[in-house]
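Materials and Methods. Structural model of MBL fold metallo-hydrolase. The 242-residue sequence of MBL fold metallo-hydrolase from Meishania litoralis was retrieved and submitted for structure prediction as follows.
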Amino acid sequence: MVKVKISEKRNPIPQKVTIEEKTTLTTWGAIKVNKSHFFPSSFQLKIDDKVIYIDPVGIENAEQADYILITHAHPDHFSLKDIKNLLKNETKMICSKGVSKKLGDVKDKVQVVRPNQQLQFEEFSIGTTFAYNTKSVFLWIKAHPKSKENVGYVITLKNGLKVYHTGDTDYISEMEQLSGIDVALVPIGGDNLTMNAEEAAKMVNIIRPKITIPMHYEIKNVEELNRFETLVNERTKIIKLN
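The predicted structure was written out as tokens:
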């Protein structure tokens, strides 16, 4: 059984990236997955006064959510405890079908999505993307099979700025259809679970985001992080958080 908790190696100060005026991206830093200290896929995106969380796990002393987006049901992405701490009466939740089955008494707040959908809200729109493995963990078994219909998200602001959270995925052909991405949140951990550094760099070099933030990797794996940075085209700014 996977055990997830806050890492004692976490940066004690939440790290905030200003994307543009009144638009910020925040992470609370490392979590501990079994015995691994791990930079997760959990972020807060704040647009003016609207607060969006993507895969909130190990969030501390945070503002309550206007929107919560969950990519899939693995425990390093889905924490019912964190969700309940962030909920208010008006919170809207968007999640894949696997997550909806685990939400218990908060499932009435949920909109279930599949890949390749478009949702329109007053402040922004959300597109869901495919997120799945082409590599197998064992024989034909995949950690994130396409049949699960896990998702990534492209959040598009009124001014056209696009933030892409890939979810857990390998490099897949559907990524090549994305365009105009300004900020990409990209897993580099590999190990038959997600893209490794080379695959992630290939994806970034094709979709050409202005800013890329690597995620979903063991924080001790500095070599993987540095290799990713070396392989990415200089047109993209890499921001490394921890």
